[in-house]
């Protein structure tokens, strides 16, 4: 019985660790780079749109002040545009967080794949090519330099410059919300003038 058990143990083949294709690793890395490029392009586009909205609000306010009979009608337009712009700024903020969360997940996958990579290189039989796990080492070095921000509730790892990137849509959102609140308060405090202003705009030839 004991001899049979030992023989069975000797015939068991050692389990081979799974290996990952370097081509697949490279494909995921390239997709992560594309996500970063898309995020930067979206940031540039959203910034331009937000600046354009601020300029449009300034033009409407200036027109309202220059035409007192239409002032409160102009405030209505300012309120409506500010509300829509604040929603857009909030969408921009969520886009940044989503892009960064997606990239964080991709690099987690890359870190998990790195030790399992199979390199198609011809080397001596007594040598073995392994991955240095560069992304993991990169984050460890950045962490030792205190260059990373706390993960917090956002759920992704990022450099401290991310705070500045998130600040921009938050700042625009604050501007738009403040403008909307000022406009609606001015309208409610002057309802009669608001009604007269719209009558002048709609019914004056």
Structure summarized in a few sentences:
Helices cover about 75% and strands about 0% of the residues. By secondary structure, it is mostly helical. It has one domain.
Low-confidence stretches: 5-15
Taking the sheet with the most strands, its summary is:
2 strands, parallel
Compute the average pLDDT: 79
Considering DSSP H and I runs of 4 or more, what fraction of the residues is helical? over 70%
Order of helices and strands: HEHHEHHH
Q: Any idea what the shape is?
A: rod-shaped
Q: Please give the alpha-carbon distance between the first and last residues.
A: 110 Å
- The total domain count is 1
Question: How many individual β-strands?
Answer: 2
* Count of separate DSSP helical elements: 6
Sheet with most strands: strand arrangement:
1-2
Strand residues, percent: under 5%
**Structural class from helices and strands?**
mainly alpha
What is the C-alpha radius of gyration, as a whole number of Å? Answer: 30 Å
């Amino acid at each position: 019985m004991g001899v049979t058990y030992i023989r069975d143990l000797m015939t068991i083949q050692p389990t081979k660790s799974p290996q990952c294709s370097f081509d697949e690793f490279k494909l995921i890395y390239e997709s992560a780079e594309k996500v970063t490029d898309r995020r930067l392009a979206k940031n540039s586009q959203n910034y331009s749109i937000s600046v354009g909205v601020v300029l449009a609000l300034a033009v409407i306010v200036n027109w309202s002040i220059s035409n007192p009979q239409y002032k409160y009608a102009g405030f209505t337009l300012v309120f409506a545009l500010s509300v829509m712009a604040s929603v857009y700024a909030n969408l921009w903020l969520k886009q940044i967080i989503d892009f960064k969360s997606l990239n964080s997940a991709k690099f987690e996958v890359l870190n998990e794949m790195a030790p399992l990579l199979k390199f198609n290189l011809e080397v001596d039989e007594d040598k073995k090519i392994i991955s240095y796990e560069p992304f993991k080492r990169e984050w460890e070095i950045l962490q030792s330099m205190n260059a990373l921000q706390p993960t917090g509730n956002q759920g992704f790892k990022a450099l401290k410059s991310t705070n500045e990137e998130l600040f921009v849509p938050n700042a625009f959102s604050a501007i738009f919300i403040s403008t909307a609140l000022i406009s609606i308060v001015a309208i409610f405090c002057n309802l009669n003038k608001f009604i007269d202003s719209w009558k002048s705009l709609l019914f004056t030839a």
